Amino acid sequence: MKKFLILLSSLTLVVGLTACETADDSFAGSIRVYTRDTSSGTRAGFMEGIGFDEAVANDAVIAAGFVIAGNLDQTNAVQIDPYAVGYVSLSTLDTNLFRGFSFNGVEPTEANVLNGTYALSRRFNWMLRDDYSVYGADAQAYEQLSLAFVAYLGSREGKASIAQSGGIVDLSTGESWNTLRSQHPICAQDNSRLTLKIGGSDSVESIAKDISPGFSTNCGNVEPEHNHTGSSNGFRGTNGDASAIDDGLSIHIGFASREFKDTEPARRKGVMAIDAIVVIGHLDNPIESLTKEQVKSIYDGTVTDWSELIG
Amino acid sequence: MNNKALRQRQDNFVRGVIYTLGSIGALVLATIIWYVVSNGIGLVSLDLIMGDSRTFNTDVYVETAPGNYPLEGYTGELELFYSERWGLGFVDTFNRAGNEAVEIGYVHPDSPFNQSLDKNGFDEFGNHLVIEVRPGFTIEKGFTDTAIFLGRNGAEQIATIVNQANVIDEISIQSRGDGIRGSLITTLYLIGMTLLIAIPIGVSTAIYFNEIAKRNRFTNTIRTMVDLLTGVPSIIYGLLGAALFIPLLNNTIQTAGGSVISGALTLAVILLPTIIKSTEEALKVISNDLRQGSLALGASKTQTIFKVVVPSAVPGILTGVLLGVGRIIGESAALIYATGAAIKDEIILTERSTSLAVHIWTVMQGEKPNFELASAIAIIILGVVFVMNFVIKLLAKRLSKAMY
Fold this sequence. Notes:
Chain A is of the alpha/beta class. Chain A has 11 helices and 11 strands. Chain A folds into 2 domains: 30-122 and 276-310, 3-Layer(aba) Sandwich (D-Maltodextrin-Binding Protein, domain 2); 130-265, no CATH class.
């Protein structure tokens, strides 16, 4: 009996400890800043978009007390912490769970991104290998398949697939693949023995994986292989230090969710889709719109309390 | 009396602390398991475990004009959005990975889609293959003479667009992949191959250290180094795998980049210290009487080692193996370098692939982390660990000649 009582009391103690929570009525509190890490393409796009270029690759200039967190952690944080602020891709925005602030007074919607009024956006870029000769007898086939793939990205069918998985493209333009296909005779052959390696940015992974099955059936059943490990590996795997055929990161087509840098040259590159970045906060946050300067002042630490932004 | 009451109070206090901390521990562990299971159990199915990861796409179209096909005899549970002019109904549902999807819910018996044509598939005479569109097919996108529709538009909107169409240029039908069969098989291959490499080397090293080598400064140094190796983070071994094994295999058996074999070799290096250490501990506790008894009966030293000492140490060795299996299943950092993160359906040992743990990492990457699928894979990993535990315990019982 005594044992039981001790056990019971200790259990209630544990439960009591975890149930402790404080409530706060007024909306004024120090802003908790969340950011992605420096390898993230979303971060580069965001920091450049708010005019805070120094913070693209440098954590030291960000407001004191900032937290480095991935996508999932950020969306969780803004559901729990009323004072949190973070940023995610528009495709991740769920307005039922957290707030997506308007940027310079423009609501974050696909239509606004396409008509150019929503300014906080970035481009998903692709690049091809300069040198396919390392593939020996298959060099020409791989080069033509890569070219066909990027042509498919711009076709009506490719664009629809991109839009289906959350990329923002203008569906009103784009030639039918039936027409474009004639310029890519490789797609009339049986390519099922060839593996087209696609990689780079992991932000692009879900879009790329949704396009490749359609491309495969429309281009001789070539086998797509995806290895998405980050934007910087988009260049490294095609034309950089990891492009050697025996390297674990080597690919034929590399994606980046940011602009390729001057140190990342390639002969053939282009844009696949646009992605908008949305500044997010808690649903209890009464602020609906933030200007570019306000967002920058939050991230560089000039503004540290939400009350400063409300007045 | 007073003294006794005081002592009792002290005892109760200590016991209270133990119970409290113990229940915190139990509660934390139970919460984690409950959290993972409650999130993932909805997606765990034989379909997920045995399914292809690759999505297959078919583009179909029809050459006939629309007609009038009134809905008859739909018995499905989901709300059907139906196009009478084409005899095609759509439903909103969820795919294997827990994402929203639109599926065909109903095809009228006279609908032209019973005889739709495959845009990219031809028979031996060069005619388009005929495809019967059936309920359960997932819609990715489609093009009509008036509009484009996408799966994410939802069943209602798709049905409206389809019903307005006079010509259907193309509908992309996909059998969604997201199965994890390839990753499960890769994990099992990795376990098998790694143990095949690591056990003979590890056990032999331990036997050498404990039974044959003299204790001097040299062997002691090596022993300390083995101890040190157990604490090295696995990402460093991953770099070793990438820097040593991948080029080695590329130049000898012509692999291109990472492969399952280079992953197994890397893991074997990671496991060696663990297996050496646990085998050595198992050998140490075997009583010297046993060795001396065997020698006294005329057995040679080698016979003594392999017929008396090692069989008695089997439970200890297998404990090390069990720890190793756990390490293999849980390893992700090293494998991203050594085997890659490419999710495959057909596993070829000389090509890139991905293990279950790395599969979780891949699923949680990107703009839309899929926590449900990650939890489902976690449950399957728990299942594999459980089965492995059971098998190894059974083996230990069978093989053991231990005196304890």
